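Components:
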Amino acid sequence: MMDAIARLGKNTLAFLASFGRASQFLLGVLAGVPKPSVGLPLLLKQIYSVGVLSLVIVVVSGLFIGMVLGLQGYTILSDFGSESAIGQLIALTLVRELGPVVTALLFAGRAGSALTAEIGLMKATEQLSSMEMMGVDPLRRVIAPRLWAGFLSMPVLALVFSMVGVLGGMLVGVEWLGVFEGSFWGNMQASVDFRDDVLNGVIKSVVFGFVCAWIAVYQGYDCVPTSAGISSATTKTVVYSSLAVLGLDFILTAVMFGNF
Amino acid sequence: MAEAAYISLENVVFSRAGRRVFDGLSVQIPRGKITAIMGPSGTGKTTLLRLIGGQLKPESGSVWVDGHNIPKLRRGALFQLRKKMGMLFQSGALFTDVSVYENVAFPLRVHTKLPEDMIRDIVLMKLEAVGLRGARDLMPAELSGGMTRRVALARSIVLDPELIMYDEPFAGQDPIAMGVVVKLIRQLNSAMGLTSVLVSHDVPESLSICHHAFILSDGKVIGAGTPEQLRKHSSDKVQQFLQGKPDGPVPFHYPAPERAVDFGLGAQ
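Structure:
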């Protein structure tokens, strides 16, 4: 019993120490903004690597999730004779929840793990150390562009996911199952509010983007510079990002939509 | 040592993973000379270079480089000072995603506003010095270990630093390349007046080019002086290391239980 309490205390202290180091690291990254002439090309390169190269997985996943939503929604709604509300169901589900959350989970698996592995390997092969010794701050040169790229890419990816999902739902609902196209789009237009739904979804994805990118770059920078250390850091990135996204989603949903 | 010290470590205490690496280490490295730091594996030679470069901070004591107390410097000032330092890492530490040419050009692109044709000339001159001008378009993955370190050497001198630290520059070099590197280190020192700190296990090569040498063991300096003074040093530890004898006061084996216990011979 005492051992369990001691272990809990030790783990809590280790977590708090790690969180403190991560916060210090974040401040260091945010404080060291590079000059636009230097930072912009690095940022664009990372946006391509983190954002553009994630488009395929986001588009394909969005399409299938939209199609499944169309199918499931039609099955349930048709029992009540309200299958014309399928557009509303798909759009609200995607824009409010699935768009930001699933995109963030995909991002953590695809781009977050790659960021951690890349930075970890740079650390293990002393590339970060050599950069430091050349008078170049790796926080500015390597970490900051990757953090900002993740932060900026996520909302765009989430919007793309939701748009493709709506198209997937339309393909199934309208083209395959024969829901009237006018009511599909009309109900959607009438029920989806830009501020309450779209903007709140974007805010969620901004938060998720920031958290996922922070976790990914920190885990890479803080990893033990061995193959086992990099492997462990990559796993932690995916696990911590997923848990953080799901936990934060509950909190944000309660704040945004819980009219208690 | 009469020359003005460019680097001065005073009573440095440093521990890593619960092990005391340096216990009150004091070393003076003169300006414009080649100083070799030697000693058995695990004595903290690379750690010493990292303390000088400010990548590690001592628990106590001070590390002075050109009048600056490195552990007390702010991050920005430390990065400014590092522009005057070059360091050759043991692994080479080349950027794996760009070519040899871009690796050597990197410090010039970041720290200078030189036009591209001048950058090209400087990069090719430095690569010529290490015999790898023809390898400029290769990627780091296409280089051998020795070539990697020579490219890293070219990169570390591309900004013409005041101080250059070499971490095992001779390891993995074939005899021809080793001769070239020895000559290059000597030439860089004499032609440019660099202060050079050389960490190496290769006793003959190091003693052939250095002006002063320190031998470290158990976190302390056990021998210091010119190569000639060290060869005549009275310490058994120093002589054992310089002559590469397996038996002597410096144990070859890492501390371990009795052989009989480990091999299960005690019960018989």
